[in-house]
Design goal:
The complex is a heterodimer of chains A (238) and B (114). With 238 residues, chain A is an alpha+beta fold. Chain A is 30% helix and 15% strand. Chain B has one domain: 3 helical TM bundles of succinate and fumarate reductases. Helix content of chain B is 83%, strand content 0%. The radius of gyration of chain B is 18 Å and the shape is elongated. Chain B starts with 11 loop residues before the first helix and ends with a helix. In chain B, 6% of the residues are buried. The chains are: A alpha+beta (238), B mainly alpha (114). Chains A and B meet through helix 8 of A and helix 1 and helix 3 of B. Bound molecules: iron/sulfur cluster (SF4) (2 copies) and FE2/S2 (inorganic) cluster (FES).
Chain lengths: 238, 114
């Protein structure tokens, strides 16, 4: 494929200068070697260096370039340029529901607060063994689809329950991480972890809308993890 | 205490479970009634005939209780999402509860008057 021109509509807002946000229209020429949306955005940034966005690894590992692309949350570095229809501008907005710091950069404080609230680390009070704490292959299997989360927040910011109660509802990313430790046979705090979530807000604000599954660029399934936490609570209670 | 976010009311699981169970009760009742009514046919007399059986009255009563509990959890969820000031929300909760209890009582009265 030869060079082509891409049209963009980008959400711009600089609280120091702008009264309110506006959409900037801008075009950029990309080459055949530019494969991902992020490549095009780097070119955009070279053209207009006032555009602000986060990115780092450019290969779907760091989770920093999550944004709302044509109405869906995703990572710019994993979004193929070929997926955009010809002749229609690519609309970029910040992740919904979080305060905008500038342009496509949002304040993730609330998101990480929720993540930290589930104690995202192994709790085990036994003295550590000589080498490592062992698990059977089957027990390890349960952690697949959980530990891969890169905390990009695509899921939580597409979840209506998180929009309404970001201070009280843990959100899909945090709950996926919660189940990651609840499911870990090396962890000894299962009961406290369940206690921590047994509340009408923290876990049960999830109404199985499944926007999170739709949004996750790593193909993870927070809804399933949430279902398993609920199952465990029921098992514990009856 | 002023602006600290407080969570940890331990009724999350109970209400979630109750919502599923009451939904099941309502689904089963609906099926039973559809079958019964297709046997007896519609109309006021058929209804009266059905409700003359205390068993039918009893399951109808259970159905109404389930409906009320189900509605209570659902409507409270809406207030929790959209109404933030505690005082207003508490008032709405109380009004909702009163209305639902009132409906349940009213239904009972109608059922046993038939
Ligand atoms: S399934 Fe739950 S966590 Fe996921 S988007 Fe829906 S409400 Fe949010
Ligand atoms: S679950 Fe997926 S969408 Fe959510 S934070 Fe993790 S990687 Fe991102
Ligand atoms: S730049 Fe790291 S995930 Fe996209």
């Amino acid at each position: 494929m030869s060079n082509r021109t891409l049209q963009f509509k980008i959400y711009r807002y600089d609280p120091d200068k702008d009264q309110k946000p506006y959409m900037q229209e801008i075009a950029v020429e990309v080459e055949s070697t530019d494969r991902k949306l992020l490549d095009a955005m780097v070119k955009l940034k070279a053209k207009d260096d006032s555009i602000a966005f986060r990115r780092s690894c450019r290969e779907g590992v760091c989770g920093s370039d999550a944004m709302n692309i044509n109405g869906r949350n995703g990572l710019a570095c994993l979004t193929d340029l070929t997926t955009f229809p010809e002749g229609k501008p690519i609309v970029l907005r910040p992740l919904p529901g979080l305060p905008v710091i500038r342009d496509l950069i949002v304040d993730m404080t609330q998101f990480f607060k929720q993540y930290h609230s589930i104690k995202p680390y192994l709790i085990n009070n036994d003295p550590p063994p000589e080498t490592e704490r062992l698990q059977s292959p089957e027990d390890r299997e349960e952690l697949n689809g959980l530990y891969e989360c890169i905390l990009c927040a695509c899921c939580s910011t597409s979840c209506p329950s998180f929009w309404w109660n970001p201070d009280k509802f843990v959100g899909p990313a945090g709950l996926l991480a919660a189940y990651r430790f609840i499911a870990d046979t090396r962890d000894q705090a299962t009961s406290e972890r369940l206690d921590n979530l047994e509340d009408p807000y923290r876990l049960f604000r999830c109404h199985t809308i499944m926007n999170c599954v739709e949004a996750c660029p790593k193909g993870l399934n927070p809804t399933k993890a949430i279902g398993k936490i609920k199952d465990m609570m029921v098992r514990r209670a009856v | 205490m002023v602006n600290r976010v407080v969570v940890g009311a331990h009724y999350g699981l109970k209400d979630w479970l109750a919502q599923r169970v009451t939904a099941l009760v309502m689904a089963v009742y609906t099926l039973v009634m559809v079958v019964l009514l297709s046997v007896t046919g519609g109309g006021f007399d058929a209804w009266r005939g059905l409700m003359a059986h205390s068993f039918v009255r009893f399951i109808t009563f259970i159905f109404v209780l389930s409906l009320c509990y189900h509605a209570w959890v659902g409507i409270r969820d809406i207030w929790m999402d959209y109404v933030k000031p505690t005082a207003i929300r508490l008032t709405l909760h109380v009004l909702t509860l009163l209305a639902l209890v009132g409906y349940a009582g009213w239904t009972t009265q109608i059922l046993w008057r038939l």
